[in-house]
Amino acid sequence: MESSDVELDLERSVQAVLRELSAQAPALQSNQGMWRWSLHKKVERDPSKSPALVRILLRELEKAESEDLRHVIIPLLHTLMYVLTKATGIAEELYRRTYAFCMRLLTLPAPYCTVALDCAVRLKTETAVPGTLYQRLVIAEQNLPSELYPYQERVFLFVDPELVSPSVCSALLLEIQAAQEQQTPEACMRHVVSHALQAALGEACHAGALQRKLQASPRHALERIFHAVVAAVEQMASEPSPSREGHLERLEEIYCSLLGPAAAARGRCGGHDALQDRPPSIPLPSPYITFHLWTDEEQLWKELVLFLRPRSQMRLSADLEALDLQGLLPDRELARVSVLSTDSGIERDLPLGADELLTPSSPEMEHGGLQRKGGMKKRAWPLDLLMLGGWDGPPGLHRRTGRPDGDGELLPGVSRLHTARVLVLGDDRMLGRLAQAYHSLRKRETQKFCLTPRLSLQLYYIPVLAAKKPAASRQPELGELAAFLGRADPWYQNTVNTLCPAIHKLAEMPPSLGSSRTVDPFILDVITYYVRMGTQPIYFQIYTVKIFFGDLSQDPPEDIFLTELTVKIQDSKLPKDGFSPRRKGVAEGPGAELSICYQKALLSHRAQEVTVSLRATGLVLKALPGSDTEVSGPTHCPPTAAPLPDHTCLNVSVTEVVKTSNLAGRSFSVVTNTFRTANIRIQSQDQRLLTLLLDKDSRRTFRDVVRPAAWSCCSGWPCSCPSSRDCPKSGKSTTRSCWPWRRVTRVTLSRRLNGTGL
Asked: Which is one GO molecular function term here (predicted)?
C-alpha cells in the first residue's frame, strides 16, 4: 500500500473516532470504542504507519485548538501519547511539535492543563532519550528486576461472584490467562532491548537480525544485555541535560557487541534489503493482572500486603491468618500504662543513703537512669519493611531515574515504589463494597501506618450491569455512578462505559482454548488502555451512618455508604413499651411521623441546623449529584472537574404525605421534597420502624431501626448535639476517607486513588 493510501485509511479512522466523540452519529452508538481500538491495531500490525498517524493526530489536535473544540483534545492527546509510547522511528520534529502543543495547553483550565503538563514532562524525556517511556512502562508493569528503575505495578481485578455471572468471570479469566502466557520475563526483556535500540538507531538498526540474535541468546546473556540497555537509558535520562547524541553512542556500542561491527556498519549504510527485512512489530505487553473473586471482607488488604512482600517471603492463604508482617497488626506492647509516682521532687524527701554515689558498673546505676514506663513510644520500623526486597540501593526518595508521576515521600527514607491499580467490575453495589474495604483499610492505617508510605493505591471502575431483562425487572439505577462519570467525561463514556455490551458478548461466545480466541483481545486491550491512560482522578465522598435499633440491648453499629441510602417505613410497629410512644392526636395514614434534623449545605459553609416534623413514606439520600446539576453549559464543553459542593453534600428526597379534608372526606396525597445537607438525623416519632438499604445492596439491609444518622466521614457530626447519647459519633473521631476514582478528563474511587494518601 502506497503512503497516500495509508494516510487516507488512517485519516478515515481518525475521523470516525472524532464523530464518535462528538456523539453526532447514532449509528455508531453500538460500536463505541471500536474505532479507537482498531486504529491502534492498524499501527500495531504495521509499525511503519506510526509516523503518518502521529502527523494526522497532531494536525487534528492543532485544528481543535484553533476552533476551541475542547471535547476532543484530551481523547486525541491520549491516543497520540499511546502511539508515541509504542512507536519507533518518529522524527524529532514531531516530538517537538507535540511538546509545543502541550505547552500551549497549559493556559487552559484543569483538567486540560494538568493532562498537558503530564504529557509535556514525558515528551521532554522521550525526545532526548528515545525509548524511555516504553522501557519504564514494561519494567514497572511486568515487575522486571532493575536497580536503576525499581518501581513495580500490578493490576488487581476484583469481581463479586454474586453480582457478575459465572460466564462473564470465566470468559475474562480465560482472556487474561491466554494473553499472559505469552508474556514471559524473557520475552519482555527482548521487547525492551529491541525497542530501545530501534528507537535510538532508527533505520541503522537491523531489526530482523537483532531479534533473531536475542531469540538465540540464553537467559543469563539476555539479562546482561537487558541491564546494559536499561542502565544506558536511565543514566542518560537522569542527567539534567540529556544528550541525544551521547545516548546514541552508548546504544551503538551495545548494538555492535550483539551483531558485530560488520553488521552494524551494513545497517548504517543501508546494506540490508528493506523489503526482505521489514521491521517486525514490537508489542507492548499488557500489564500483569491478577483475577480475584471477592469473597472475603479483608481480601483487598491481604492482597496489597502480599504485593509489598518480597517474593521469597510470600506465603499462601494458609498463613494469612498469622500475617504479622513485622508490625502490620496492632501492637499490644504500645499500650500506655499509668504509673503512680511517690517521688515528691524535693531533695530532703529522698531516703537515707540515696545521695551516695553509685559505681558506674553497679546494677543500681543501670536501673537508676531516667526512664519512662509505658509511655508513647516511637515505632522503630524494621529495615525490610522500609525497603523493598531486591532493592539494595541507599534509602530515601529515588528520583535519579524518574518516577511515576504524583507520588511523593510521606515518611523520611520510605519511597513509594509500588503502585496497586485496583480495578472492580460490577454495578453500584460493587462500588459500595469497595468503599467499605477502602474505608476499613484507611481506618487500619490510622492505627498502623505501614501501607500508606510505601504504596500508591489507584482505583478504577468498569461498569458491568446485568444482561438486558424485561422492562418490568430492569434496574437502570444500578449504573448511576457509571452514568455520572460518562456525563462528566466523554472519554470515559466512549472508552469504558461501552465495555459492558462487549463483555456480555464475550461471555456468550463458546469456550475455546485455541489461539484464535486471543488474536485480538478487545476486552483486555481496552482495560489496559484505561488503566494506563486514565490519569485524572475524581474524588467521591464516603458517608458514615450510625443505626439505632428499637431493641435497646443492641449496640448501634456504624456503616458507610458511597452512592445512596434508602429509608423505608416498615409495616411492623414497636411494642407498647418500645423506644418512643406514638404522639397523641396523630392521624393514622400511610407512612410514619418522622422528625428530621439536618444541617443545610450552604456555599458559605455556615452551620445552620433545621428541624422538621412530617409524615413520610420514605427518604432517599443520594451522594451523587443529579444529571440536571452536573451537566451544564454547551455539550461540546464538558465540565472540567466535578463540582466540590455536589460531592460533599447529600441530596435528600423525602416522600411526604399531605392530608387534605373536604366534603368527600379525608384524603392523602404524596409530594416529593428535596434539599441538600451535610449531615442528617432521622427519628421515628410513632411506633413505626424503619428499614435501611445501603448502596442499593440487599445484603446490606438493616431492619427494625428507629433512628439513623448520616454524616460525612471527613467532617464528622457537629458538636452541637445535646448529649453524647444523641450524638451519632458518641465522642469518637472518624477517619478521613475522601475517595478518588480514575477516569481521563480527569478530574479518586481514578489514573490514581491517587490524591489521598494511599
From this structure: 1-phosphatidylinositol-3-kinase regulator activity
